[in-house]
Amino acid sequence: MSKVLVIGGGPAGMMAAIMAGRNNNDVMLIDKNKELGKKLKITGGGRCNITNMRDIEDFLEKIVVNHKFLYSCLYTFTNLDLVEFFKKHNLNFKIEEDLKVYPENDKSQEIIDILKKELKKSNVKIIYEKEFKDLLVEDNAVKGVVLESEEIIKADKVIISTGGMSYPKTGSSGETYEILKKYGHTINKIYPSLVPLIIKEKWIKNLQGISIRNVKVSSYSKNKKIEMLGDILFAHFGVTGPVILNISSFLNKTLKEKEVDIIVDFIPDIKKEELSKLIRKNPNKAIYNNLKEILPLNFTKELLNYLSINKKPNELNKQEEKRIIESIKNLKLTCVGTKSINEAIVTSGGINVKEINSSTMESKVINNLYFAGEIIDVEGLTGGYNLQIAFSTGYLAGISV
């Protein structure tokens, strides 16, 4: 039996503590908040997109950074294993668009309650409102931790699952990076990821609140074309919505250095020739009325206003029609940056995976120190991938101590 400390009570930390406890270790879970799973509680607007039911090989393709590092943990504790873990507590799930998995009642609190029951069953002692300040390291091995109150808690093994820097109000504010640097770990540069994009074009603010489903957004990252499909939402600062959050994962680093163009096709399933016929369908009606079956009326009105075209279809010349079609099929927007990491869903960057044993989640720099969750430099797209990463890395760390 080992004495194990788990620092951080998010999904990765709770799963790590549960599995370490099941292996008959003496486990203590320490969290700085008054409650466990504070960020998990607000995930997906409180609905909790817990995982995705893609085959693991397809699942790995949705991991943007360091997917090879995650092979062991995702095969050790798969999406099917995660769903089965909760089903044992009679929690029902539903599978929605793009194979996203949610609790049937759309309540993240039920996920947290089950994890807390499992923590109790595994005899995990939980310490609330205690902040991790430092590690105790001797002879290149961890011996415990120091809390902010200067309290020292000794241990044989320590699992760090304190999260990244996104949503700092939930407790993941990034102080752990500096502690780990001090003991020789490399922290890859931190960027906001799955984050809204700020757009230069001022007229976009007139579209605030308008959402359009299933648009295609394309851009270039490191001379490679990136194309994504999904929903877009206009805001006063620019654009957000699932397709924008996903493409931000590929553009965030470049946007720290320069502007990036994105091209939006608002109706990817409709060809230009067909769009031309729709524009002229009723020659004496307003153009936006002819297009209202395929695009929101208020969007088309603002687009035509931006193009300074206030004509009926029978008054349009070919050049004006071409401008309308190009603006709907290939609207170029200039991204000048992302919103801050406070508004990002996940953190890009973190502990360099080359310094972690992918088969156990143990540090290669400090013996008996393990990692789980968002503190590691791994990230996936939206759709349940990041929560699965948290649970799978936590599981593997927990069974390895």
UniProtKB/TrEMBL annotation:
Keywords: FAD, Flavoprotein. Its cofactor is FAD. SUPFAM superfamilies: FAD/NAD(P)-binding domain, HI0933 insert domain-like. Coiled coil: none annotated. Residues 3-398 form the RsdA/BaiN/AoA(So)-like Rossmann fold-like domain. Residues 191-346 form the RsdA/BaiN/AoA(So)-like insert domain. Pfam families: HI0933_like (PF03486), HI0933_like_1st (PF22780). PANTHER family: OS12G0638800 PROTEIN (PTHR42887:SF2). This is Flavoprotein, HI0933 family.
